[in-house]
Amino acid sequence: MSEERDYEKEALADGWNPNFEGDGKKDAKTFVEDGEKISGMLKNKIGHLEERIDSLTQTNAEFKEYTDKQRQKDVDENKRLVAELESVKAQAITDGDGAAAVKADRDIQSLKVEDQQQVNPEIDRLAREWGAANEWYGTDQELTEYAEFIYPRVIADGYTGKAYYDEMTRRVKSQHPEKFENPNRNKAGSVESGGGKGGESKDQTWANLPKADKVIADRFIKDMPGFTKEQYLAEYEWEQES
Alpha carbon 191 to chain centroid distance? Predict the structure, then answer.
C-alpha cells in the first residue's frame, strides 16, 4: 500500500494559505494538483522554447559561416586590387606621371579602409558612432567633401581605430573652424577686429598650403622620384572663396 500524500504539507510549502476566504479559495489537494498542471504546462513550454533556441543557434551559426566566407571573398578581392594598384603606382612613378601616382595611392588607401571594415566589425561600430556624433557629415557638402579628401592621408599617417576618427574630426574642424564656432562669438570678434580676415593671402602657393597637406606632399615627393611641389600644387584642390 502506497503512502498517502500529505497535500496540506505540500500546499503550505508552495505558499497555500488555509485561512484565505476570498474568491478562488482552494483546498490543499486542489491547490497542489492545479500547481502540478501549471508546472507541466510550463515544462512543456520551456521544452518548446529550448528547441526554438537550439534551432536559432544553429541558424545563426550557419549564417555566420556564410557571412564569414563572403567577407573573406571581399578581403581577397581587395588585396588583389591593391596589388594591381601598387603596380599602376610603380609604373606611374617610373613614367614620371605624378597625377596617376597620386590617384593610385588614394585608391589604395581607400581599399585599405574597406579591408579594415571587412576584417574588423569594430570599425563599423566606430564609423556609425562617429557619423552620429558628427551630423555635418553627409549634410554639409563642403565639410563632407573635405573629409573624404583627407581620409586616405589620415590612414597614411598611421591613425587607426578610434584615434583615426578623432583625428578626422580634428583636421576637419581645424580646416573649417568657422563651421564649428559660436556664430555670436564670431560676430563679436569681427566687430572687435574690424571684420573679416583682413590681409590674409589667398595665393595658391606652397606657403598657404595647409600643414597636413604639406606632410602628404612631402611624403609623395620622398617616395616618388621626380614628383615635385609644383606638380602637387597644380593638382591640389584649393578651397574656393565664397
Answer: 41
Residue pair 201/175 in contact (Cβ under 8 Å)? The answer is: no
Going by the DSSP 8-state scheme, the letter that residue 238 receives in this structure is P
Is 0.70 surpassed by the pTM of this model? no
Tell me the domain boundaries of the chain: 120-180+208-219
Determine the Cα–Cα distance for residues 75 and 133; give it in Å rounded to an integer: 28
Q: Does residue 85 contact residue 104 with C-beta atoms inside 8 Å?
A: yes
Amino acid at 54: D
How many angstroms from the chain centroid is the CA of residue 127? 2
Q: Using DSSP, state whether 180 is helix, strand or coil.
A: coil
Q: What cell does 168 get?
A: 578626422
Q: Give per-residue pLDDT as tens, 191-218.
A: 444 444 434 445 788 888 887 778 777 7
Q: Check if the beta carbon of residue 18 is closer than 8 Å to that of residue 7.
A: no
Are the C-beta atoms of 132 and 165 separated by less than 8 Å?
no
